[in-house]
Predict the 3D structure of the following.
Amino acid sequence: MDINLTKQFIDNIFSDSVIKTLQEYIKIKAKSPAFDQDWEQNGYLQHACEMVEKWCQSLKINGLSTEIISSKGRTPLLFIEVASNSNNTETTLIYGHIDKQPEGSGWDKNKSPFKPVIENNKLYGRGSADDGYAAFSALCAIKAIKEQNLPHNRFVILIESGEESGSPDLPYYIEKYQEKIGNVDLVVCLDSGCGDYKRLWITNSLRGTAVGNLEVKILTQGIHSGHSGIAASSFRVLRNILDRIEDSNTGEIKIQELLPIIPANIMKMIKKSVKIIGQEVSNCIPFAPGVKPVSSDPLDLMINHTWKPVLSYIGVDGMPSTAHAGSVLRPETLISLSLRLPPNIKAEKALELMKTKLENNPPYSAKISFIPLDYANGWVMPELNKKLFNAINESSRAFFNNDVCFVGEGGSIPFMNFLLSKFPKAQFIVTGVLGPNSNAHGPNEFLHLPYVKNLTCALSYIFAS
């Protein structure tokens, strides 16, 4: 591959069509079904698929075919195929999604979720980095190979529209069209993050998650708070039983079966990434003035973020607003718990352990129930073969002037384990553009344009290799 030609080609195609089309995509209110109950009638997801498909066809890639697959009640899937131009019968499967998180609040005055703005080489707007860029990056990388008449595998690109809702339809489509997908030897997921914008980052682990509602019920109705001291506070009981699973002083999870054993090769990668990122592990968090992270050691923070179980309290019912708070002993408190899990811990088992610990032997014989709501297993990257590792590292040196770096992500991509089970012999590359302050799911989400161009070049090099 001619490195300079690749850079020039990718820069030109982004300037000519990619950025303009991404701006149009940002304008589409293609919220994921979990955030738009009328998604099917509204048609935004279908519109986004059609817009991306039209752009793909405009590239006039030899061997390209596209199809929007949809079944009643299921989110549409854009199926893109590029035939091999060699005798290789194996397939590279590339994944991305076009559905979006809801608008959120806190956007800067000159920005909004569905109004694309380019500022300081960053494209702002909902879905720009998570994950609208994916189809464009993948096709441009393939087009760059074609421009230099280099041999390549067959490519299948799946762009789904339900990822932000937990990818409920993706297993169905992959099972139904497995024969059409073919013999996959490499899976590339373009829905992850990067530690900085100076090198290629590959995700080597993803945490799992276990979500449920914990309810403590003491009374059949609210009573005058003067009766306190006779009946226990439902909030105090809730606080007490939460101490069974979390140390409120340190945040450490007390369920021994959920504590991780980090593989030696992963720990080596963690230490290397911390040397590069340093204090950026916490500097990119929007702390309130004067607030400090839970540790001053970046290594501790990275381990906490990628491999330790951590409990978050994400919702509460049963508490009136402060403006409407009366002198009342409330009958019950309901709280939503989200436990992030080590990548190699089974989420279903975690929910079982939480339920047992929280419900057994309730104080004052209070009515306590823990209702599991959702779960997702984590994922650990299979070991890369030497040829692929070398191609990845060479691509990072060629287009970023730095070696590749591997890092874990604190979030989840639930279907990664499903893909691993479907294609157990495949190699995996999980990467993305969600770097410092890119703020996926939050206000001022942006796509770092120089980085995505370099990432696209790197992908082209890897595919050609």
Observations:
- Residues 3-27 form the longest helix (25 residues).
